What we know:
The protein has 139 residues and is α/β, with parallel strands linked by helices. The chain has one domain (2-124): 2-Layer Sandwich (Transcription Regulator spoIIAA). The protein is built from four helices and five strands, in the order ββαβαβαβα. It is globular. The mean pLDDT is 88.
Amino acid sequence: MSSQYSWQQKDQLIYARLSGTVDAQDLRKGNANISHYLEDSKSASVHLLFDCREVERITFSVVQVRNELRYLQHPALGWVVIFGMSGVVENMVEFLTAVISRLSGLRVYSADTLEDGVSFLQSVDPSLPAVLPSIDASA
């Protein structure tokens, strides 16, 4: 898998672009990256925006998510917004997030598009600017 992580809005919103097959090793890498952002943030609430438009397969389990994604317990973690899923990937992610949210209290929102996801975050967190820096939604 290929993944890219960056601040979409410094200290408030992490943007993660995922592609290809996502497996347990990718969970470990993602945990390290996201944990670093959460630890460095000066904000009380940091949201995640996952771009899954290029994800082809998911080969990890709920148990692997619980074991690997330590950032899910971070006190500064706000909402996790996932967008761009389709087909089997969408079904798998929806199942995993439903189970994980029940077990951990994780707040997850599934959006159809980047714009929908950003609008949702702005509606639940008024501290986010009305206009966020542009994300290349065509890639």
